[in-house]
Amino acid sequence: MATKHGKAELVAPPLMEVLGLEVVAAAVDTDELGTFSGEIPRLAAPLETAVAKARMGMAATGLAIGVASEGTVGPSAAVPFLSVARELVVLVDDERGIVVADTEISYDLITICVDAEADQDLTGQLEQGQFPAHAVLVRPTDGSPGPVFKAIRDPHALRVALEACCDASVDGRARVETDLRAHLCPSRQPIIARAARRLADRVATPCPECASPGFGIVGVEIGVPCEWCGRDTDLVRAHVLGCVACRAQRVDVVATEAADPGHCAWCNP
């Protein structure tokens, strides 16, 4: 596993418990594929980036199986003022020629983002962001290329960073936000661990046709009928399960009863 940020200790336990796989951490600079802080943009999709990370670890260790984690954080589509974390963990197996991935989605991430002046009291915001357990980073608000101060867990270091970034910013303000790298963001760590457990369980599930590891959800079918009017709602009716090695698929119905009218756009517009 190629990682700079202590993810191996989060991913290793379920892979050993469920699959008997020992995770070997490879000291590879995965930041070249993109950073949370934005200095290096992430140009590829999360799955493509995770696979590239896994292959970096495989190249560094000479092993035929690699794992990697890739996280994204952004506003929730359903509740825009809440941040949602999506953690993807992938296993690349060149012996079998397969790639298996699974994801954990959570609203439990602790984050803050505040624009401040150098002498502004940030006590309330920092408490909300669980500082100093959660580190912060500081940068100018106007998009200046620098300076950017990371991994701040000390109030004095925070004050120094605020002053430097305010001085460098045209509007005299600095942005203070949670440093989302895994080793500095405790609330992100259990999300990664749960994603790893989901991956391990999926790898442990053989395809009913070819017996390849990794049989699991590849899509969903929408359209649970409303209990009152019978029209389809946006609720998930069934999971589509598929194989990563062959074309085998199976549809598992998960909604066996009609939907509550509260979910119906016609009965509850």
Features:
Dna Ligase, domain 1; alpha+beta; 4-stranded antiparallel beta sheet; 3-stranded antiparallel beta sheet; 23% helix; 3 domains; 269 residues
Could you give a short description of this structure?
With about 270 residues, the protein is an alpha+beta fold. The protein has helices at about 10-20, 45-60, 125-130, 155-170, 190-205; strands at about 65-75, 85-95, 100-105, 115, 135-140, 150, 175-180, 215-220, 235-240, 250-255.
- Shape summary: flat
Which strand order does the major sheet show? 4-7-5-6
Largest sheet: 4 strands, antiparallel
How much beta, percentage-wise?
A: 25-35%
In percent, how helical is the residue content? 10-25%
Topology:
Elements (H helix, E strand, L loop, with lengths): L7 H12 L26 H16 L3 E11 L7 E11 L4 E9 L6 E4 L6 H6 L7 E5 L8 E4 L2 H14 L5 E5 L10 H15 L12 E7 L13 E7 L6 E5 L16
Antiparallel strand pairs: 1-2, 2-3, 4-7, 5-6, 5-7, 8-9, 9-10
